[in-house]
Amino acid sequence: MCSEVIIMEELKTTIYKKAQDLGAAIVKTADVESWEKEPIQDKSFWPRNIWPWSKRVIVLAIPLFLPMVNSTPSMLYQELYNTSNRIMDDMAYNLANYITMLGYRAMFFPRDCYADIKALLKNPAAAFSHVVAAYYAGVGTFGDSHNLLTKEFGPRVRLVSVITDAPIEADGKLSEELCIHCGKCLRSCPSGCFKENGGGLYDYDKRACTEYHVKLSDENHFPCGICANVCPVGDDMRAYRREAAITEAGIRHVQSYGS
Fold first, then answer.
1. How many domains does the chain have?
2. Domain of 124?
3. Whole-angstrom Cα distance, residue 47 to residue 42?
4. Which of 20, 88, 132, 135 could pair with 111 as two cysteines, CB 3.0-4.6 Å apart?
5. Cα angle 230, 19, 161; round to 5
6. Residue 198: which region, alpha, beta or left (left: phi > 0; alpha: psi -120 to 50)?
7. What's residue 113's pLDDT?
8. What pLDDT is attached to residue 6?
9. Nearest Cα to 45, choosing from 161, 150, 146?
10. Which of 55-93 are b and which e, b meaning 16 or more Cβ less than 10 Å from the residue's Cβ?
11. Residue 221: its pLDDT value, please?
């Protein structure tokens, strides 16, 4: 038994180091049983009901840089979003390949899995939620905005997941809720998609949010990201406490030009 634990620890260390070498800022693991023990979604979304061999979900996160997020909606932020998407898929593919070469089953679920934002008007849900996986893995906790909040970067992160049967120890959820319930996301949302409901996460109108994103996409500066921009949670804010990440004039400037 002791040798098995050592092997699991060594395997986890090896896989996490590989993920970090590939560029992951945060790496955490969830046990697929978490979906069943603490159900948040319908059974059809549980990993084992999709991939019966799965045992763990490794969640990778990378930051979205505050000075670029602050410019949203802009082509500058859109390029950051697109670049992070490409990096996430490459990172997850390479980690899944690495785990496969170690002799375990593995695959990755892409960071976004739809051809066009308009597809979400008909079916505003993903086949697999990286946010839910990240919650179970201890990457962060849910904010009132339904974003995942992390200690390191608040909601200014992009997530991707690797599903595997590699026998590594799960990290477990965070015990401390990170949302401070300041209401900034509620007041700042340009689509008005959040509504107070007397406690807990805000009621969230997915269609209103998606329709606004479609509008931005048609104007060539997608996505929105206002709720992530105004959120005060995250250690990444500390570096800009004495000096603005970008000036108000600078925001107007980058919003007026492409990259």
1. 1
2. 3-255
3. 11
4. 88
5. 60
6. left
7. 64
8. 56
9. 161
10. bbbbbbbbbbebbbbbbbbbbbbbebbeebeebbbebbb
11. 83
Residue 224's closest CA among 104, 18, 69, 86?
A: 69
Q: Name residue 61's amino acid.
A: A
CA angle (123, 124, 130) in 5-degree steps:
125
Backbone angles phi, psi at 50, to 5 degrees: -110, -45
Written as one string, the DSSP assignment of the chain is -HHHHHHHHHHHHHHHHHHHHTT-SEEEEEETHHHHHS--S-GGGSHHHH-TT--EEEEEEEEPPHHHHTT-SSHHHHHHHHHHHHHHHHHHHHHHHHHHHTT--EEEE-S---S-TTHHHH----SS-HHHHHHHHTS-EE-TTS-EEBTTTBT-EEEEEEEE----------SS-------HHHHH-TT--EE--SSSSPEE-HHHHHHHHHHHHHTT-----HHHHH---SGGGGGGSSS-SS-HHHHHHHHTS--
Give the tokens for residue 100: 């496969």
226: its two tokens: 């206002």
Which amino acid, 157?
V
Residue 111: the pLDDT is: 84
